[in-house]
Design brief:
Blueprint (H helix, E strand, L loop, with lengths): L8 H6 L1 H14 L3 H6 L13 H20 L6 E2 L3 H9 L5 H11 L12 E9 L4 H4 L6 E10 L4 E9 H8 L7 E3 L13 H13 L9 E2 L6 E2 L2 H10 L5 E2 H10 L5 E4 L14 E4 L2 H13 L14
Parallel strand pairs: 1-6, 3-8, 9-10
Antiparallel strand pairs: 2-4, 2-5, 3-4, 6-7
Length: about 325
């Protein structure tokens, strides 16, 4: 997800329902609305340490409220990749909104890992589509699969993100043609890998205090090709999110298995993630996008459910 300032501002200006949503978030977090919109991440800060995650979640919830309250557009299922999975579960009613923002505020306070074995990083690598990542990384210490982003180019390859110590990633990359493995300079954390266990440990008391509910609509997991339908499955999703690899094919495949007819990608998101889906997808971030979503619902003859939720990525 994109954490650039300004996300959600246009809808906030137009819709009282969005203004109400943001005011509640400001009350829960102690961060005023203008700061939510405008504050930038400081150099060296990770995504979780800035306002970006709060801004993204607020934008998604605000858009979902506009679609539901103003136009009666509510989904039959939700999903989300990485951080978006937590927001998606909240939209499905599996987590109280206030609890989500309590968790996000707590996430900003995570201390560095006790054992400092050097800087962490994330790297991008294209591999043949049928390559088993377990085999690829079997004998590679301190390098882990963080995300499978699915097919790229002509479909003969897929893009994966690897997380690990920067030195280990660079050593692993030396075995490929020059430039094949790109180690990012923008991320200093090995997302969705065992190196983030300190985050899970730090958040466990907060998660233990949270109440999880059976979601009102299925939550399609980004960790396996599975629809989550119980409170315990959602709790497990939250617990595993920092350390387990995520997969775009699992997430989209689950939606396809569930018979999805139209996808709405809410808020500042990597919209291209859904381009390979077998169903049409509409990005909803601005007032114009809301109209496009309404048009798509009617053009495709979608029968709207009566349950309030949303699709987050």
């Amino acid at each position: 997800m994109n954490d650039q300032p300004g996300a959600g501002a246009e809808l906030y200006e137009l819709f009282p329902s969005v203004q109400h949503t943001y005011q509640r978030i400001a009350d829960w977090t102690g961060i005023d609305v203008q700061r939510i919109f405008e504050e930038e991440r400081q150099p060296g800060q990770e995504h979780r340490q800035g306002i970006g995650a709060i801004r993204q979640a607020a934008a998604v919830l605000g858009i979902a409220d506009v679609l539901a309250e103003e136009y009666g557009i509510t989904p039959a299922a939700v999903c989300g990749l990485s951080f978006g999975a937590l927001v998606g579960a909240t939209l499905a009613g599996a987590v109280e909104r206030q609890d989500l923002f309590t968790l996000l505020m707590r996430l900003r306070e995570v201390p560095p890992p006790a054992a400092d074995n050097g800087p962490q990083a994330v790297a991008m690598l294209r591999i043949p589509y049928d390559t088993a990542t377990d085999d690829l990384l079997a004998d590679v210490p301190d390098v882990y699969l963080s995300a499978d982003l699915g097919k790229v180019g002509t479909g003969q390859e897929r893009m994966v993100l690897l997380g690990g110590y920067r030195s280990a990633l660079q050593e692993f990359g030396a075995g490929f043609p020059a430039g094949a493995l790109h180690v990012s300079d923008d991320h200093g954390a090995a997302f969705h890998s065992p190196l983030q266990q300190h985050i899970s440990d730090f958040l466990e008391p907060t998660l233990e205090a949270m109440t999880f509910h059976d979601p009102r609509v299925p939550v399609h997991s980004c960790m396996e090709r599975k629809a989550l339908t119980t409170a315990e499955e959602i709790r497990d999703l939250f617990r595993r999110n920092p350390t387990a690899p995520v997969s775009v094919p699992h997430m989209i495949g689950g939606l396809e298995d569930g018979g999805t007819e139209l996808g709405l990608v809410l808020g500042p998101a990597a919209f291209g993630t859904f381009q390979s889906a077998a169903f049409p997808v509409v990005h909803v971030e601005s007032p114009d996008h809301v109209f496009e979503a309404m048009t798509a619902v009617y053009d495709f003859g979608i029968e709207l459910p009566s349950t309030e939720a949303g699709v987050a990525q």
